[in-house]
Structure formats: structure tokens, C-alpha cells
Design a protein that fits this description.
Helix content: 10-25%
Strand content: 25-35%
Strand order of the largest sheet: 4-5-8-7-9-12
CATH architecture: 4-Layer Sandwich
Oligomer: single chain
Number of strands: 13
Largest sheet: 6 strands, mixed
CATH topology: CNF1/YfiH-like putative cysteine hydrolases
Order of helices and strands: EEHEEEEEEHHEHEEHEHE
Length: 242
Amino acid sequence: MIGRRESAGGAHFAFTDRWGGVSAAPYEELNLGGAVGDDPGSVRANRELAAKSLGFGPDAVVWMNQVHGADVAVVDAPWGESPVPEVDALVTARRGLALAVLTADCVPVLLADPVAGIVAAAHAGRPGMAKGVVLAAVRAMTELGAEAERITARTGPAVCGRCYEVPEAMRAEVSAVEPAAHAETAWGTPAVDVSAGVHAQLERLGVRDRAHSPVCTMESGDHYSYRRDRTTGRLAGYVWLD
């Protein structure tokens, strides 16, 4: 269920795998995405199971309506009955409130400055990385009092550069914005390494404490991959402060 969890200075980071939930094929088992065609009741049950495994209730988690952009929402409570906004990053200064990001090949980015008491979660797919969603998330954190050199950054399972094949024109377009994302597949064709691009951006922002998952979602049967399966579930990354 929780494939990876880490704590540092009162900040907590967690990434799920696909197991331990109730969804039926092709979403089996722990699909946490509510807009992929899965039964809504199964998704609610999975979100409750995942939250409980992390030690909090589902009403303590804030989700996003992700659209591959670079907009950020600063939050202090779940949305309740309000519409979930179309953003690709969340920031909060409220302790005990978990921020969640959904992925199935894109890079989930979790950020925390425990000293300032600020955390953020960002959805960095190829478009969002190129549009600057990571920069926008860090900027929103610093506007609330965080400092880049104090931020801990963790990125979760994502498609790797040796698997993420794209047309040459697309690679050139992304590389013009972020050269570190320039890649080649294992079979010698143009590719994009979104995780490498994200970490290069974080490094330029002054974020020194960074770590990434070694898991390639496209290669791992324990994780969802949209590029591999098309109709599939979504993983989640969670970040929160005590």
C-alpha cells in the first residue's frame, strides 16, 4: 500500500504503490484517482485505507483537480462541498493537513520546510515541468516564509528517461526550456526525463536536500502507468507536518 515513507524534522513524505485496495481490474487494487473511470465507492474506500495507514482520516487530506499546468493553491482545509480547483500544486502552513498529488507516470513532487512549517505537493508531468510548476510551488512556499535552502524535496515513482519516448520535436521543445530533461530511450530514440528536469530546477532554486525514487512506473508492475496501460489507476504522494 505505502511503497515508500520517510520522515525528517517533523515532515512526512509517503508514496503509494498499487496494492492493498479494493478496486477491480483494470484499476486493481489501490486506485486513488477519482476521474479515471473507477467505481467512486471503491476510490473513497481506497482513500480511506491509504489515509488510515498513514495515521490520519480521509478528511485531513487535500486533493487537486490536476490539469498539467503551473497554478498553485494555498490551502488551510479540505475543499468540503466546494469545487476542487484546477491546480497542479498545493501549499499549506497548517500542521496535520496532508497534501496529495496523483500520478501514473508524471513526477510527484513533495516539498517541506519544517522550520517554517510549510509543505507543498506538486504534479510535474512533462507539460507542467516545462511550464514551471516546481518554481511556482517553491515561490508560493517562500512567500509564506519558507527558505529554499531549508526545503526537503522528495520525488516519487515516475516514468524514467530511458522509457519516455517522444517525437524529436517535442524533446527539442522541452529541452529548450529545461536542458536536463533531454534524454534517449534504451532503444536509441528521443526521450524526455521529467524527473531529471525537476531535480535540475530544484537545484537551481537552491533546494539542496533532494532525493528521487528509483522506480520507473512503466517498468514496474507494482505501480500504475498510463503510458503502459492507458486505462489504469493513479498512485498518490502525500506530504504533511506534525
